[in-house]
């Protein structure tokens, strides 16, 4: 297993460090590494901050309780549970009891 892991690590390293030039098959020209061009393109698409009023309005809209919150609100109340568990076939059951109180808070969130 140790030899297998070493072989896998070395092969991964060799493939990761592959620096051969790529040739365009249609023109026969060597293509330069485009990683710098990709970085430049990525930098031009960086996130631009918005003003705080727009951000706050969007956060309030996204935080408004919706249909999912109404569905969760149906579970409000006091709940009692009784669970029966068998540790082995034919063994006596173990009975556990529990209770829970569920309540929506923070304006129905």
Question: Which SSEs are present, and which pair or pack?
Answer:
Blueprint: H1 2-16, E1 22-23, E2 30-31, H2 35-44, H3 52-63, H4 67-73, E3 77-85, E4 94-102
Describe the 3D structure.
The structure is a single chain. 40% of the residues lie in helices and 20% in strands. The model has no long low-confidence stretch (mean pLDDT 79). The protein is flat, with a radius of gyration of 30 Å. Strand 1 (22-23) and strand 2 form a beta hairpin. It contains 4 helices and 4 strands. The chain has 109 residues and is α+β, with helices and mostly antiparallel strands. The longest helix is centred in the N-terminal third of the chain and has 15 residues, at 2-16.
Helix content: 40-55%
The rough form would be described as flat
What count of helical segments does DSSP give?
4
Distance between the termini: 51 Å
Strand content: 15-25%
How large, in whole angstroms, is the Cα Rg? 30 Å
**Strand arrangement across the biggest beta sheet:** 1-2
What is the mean predicted local confidence, pLDDT?
79
Which structural class matches the secondary elements?
Answer: alpha+beta
- Please write the string of helix (H) and strand (E) elements: HEEHHHEE
Number of strands: 4
Low-confidence stretches: none
Largest sheet: 2 strands, antiparallel
